[in-house]
Amino acid sequence: MSGNLSQDLSQEQGSPIAEQLPLVEELIPCPDLEQLLIEFAGEDSLLVLDSARQSSSQGHFSYLMCNPLTRTQIQAAELGTDPFLPMREVQARHQIESVPGLPPFQGGFAGLLSYELGRCWEEFPRAPQDEFQLPDFAVGFYDWVIAWDHHQHRAWLIVQGFDESLNAQSYERAIQRCQSVKARTDSVLFDRRGRIDQLPQWNTEPPLPLEALSSAFPLEGYPHIFSNFCKAEFQDRVSQIIEYIYAGDIFQANFSHRLLSRTTSHPAELYLNLRSKNPAPFAGYFGWDDWAVLSASPERFLNVSGSEVETRPIKGTRRRKYVPEADLLTRDELRESEKDQAENVMIVDLLRNDLSRVCLPGSIRVPQLCSVETYETVQHLVSEVRGQLKPDTTVWDLLAASFPGGSITGAPKVRSMEIIAELEPTVRGPYCGCLFYAGLNGEFDSNILIRTFTVRKGWIQFPVGGGIIAQSQPRLEYEETLHKAAGMIAALHS
């Protein structure tokens, strides 16, 4: 069964059905996201933006889309270039009103911005090693999307009906796409499809040999997981960052090490394990050609609704305890930690500065500062910064002013990124970048790609890191990275 909202709207407004775009079809009963992910796993450029942790106040909407009308890829960012130029041109031609009562993303651009894309706007070195060669930018225009509202337990198929040149819309084209997608969703609902054993074969090229990696040290306690640092070297690098801080170069830098494990599984299967073991409000799955990004991110980067901008930086982490009383004590310890509060406040100040470049003077505020949020394996200190975009300022201007996020770089940002490139031997790639959507209705949302797997060439990468300040202790910083990796390691072994 289904309900055609476009038809309902046309009847209410007295206009012909043929003028009603986007075409909107409610999916009844509400489909299961996991089953649809399996159903569409073999399609081109499948993207799922997933509020897998729906108990969270942030876990409201999820989206699934594939087979974009256009695809844009940039392998390596260059200073002074504008990667968003094609998006700006399309949005200048088409400004579409949202259909009221539906999730905010109703079709448009979506995809991946890798960490090194920041080199378009700031001059900092690229790390010397890049064995996996993922692009800095991979974005599609998605004409249709399945959108869930988890608070209402409802889902809709939304189709805009654009042609491949993104110049014109057609109701007949939208009808054809709607019928095609609906046939797939119905097959899942009524034919009991959508099982793990129905996943298509993943890329079968020979895996990258271990000796081809820039460095690989077995992780203590996990002989099949490798880091690009041994424990002692990681701690030495943290000590170097502390020396930079005392020398006056920076106040804070986010430092990480890359964990690696071999894989032969389909990335969709791994993602379903990850969302089960470590559900998060800003999770996502993105399969593009022969690689995939799978994220259980708890962190929002930027959200834009109307002219209102929101960012929610995370700084400060504690491992969860199994005993409830001990878990409460851990929460209180995190809340009262001067070191963790200092990390968080520094990044809040950095983000206020970034937003001030594109927001109205006097509009930037901090409604939430250093609140504790609890997840499956860790607790975090989270803040919220808001502002109002200046007139005639776009989300692309906002990204250019603030990417990559301050919570995963440091303060001052550019000098921190220079130090990161000096001390981390491999590029970050998707890690610390973002998955995002940018609707033609002006709505925008994005995450910070932490707690993230990247799959390519027979390997899973999952870097972990943290903010280093003057009070940091190298041994504890190393241990914190393993606490952050716990949920991902559990997903690997399930």
From TrEMBL:
Residue stretches making up the Chorismate-utilising enzyme C-terminal domain: 231-484
GO molecular function, one term: 4-amino-4-deoxychorismate synthase activity
Enzyme class: transferase
Record carries keyword Signal: no
SUPFAM superfamilies, sorted: ADC synthase
Location of the Anthranilate synthase component I N-terminal domain: 36-156
EC numbers: 2.6.1.85
Taxonomic superkingdom: Bacteria
Keywords: Aminotransferase, Transferase
A Pfam family reported for this protein in Swiss-Prot or TrEMBL: Chorismate_bind
Signal peptide range: none
PANTHER family listed in its UniProt record: AMINOBENZOATE/ANTHRANILATE SYNTHASE (PTHR11236), AMINODEOXYCHORISMATE SYNTHASE COMPONENT 1 (PTHR11236:SF50)
NCBIfam families: pabB (TIGR00553)
Protein name (Swiss-Prot/TrEMBL): aminodeoxychorismate synthase
Organism: Gimesia algae
Gene name per UniProt: pabB
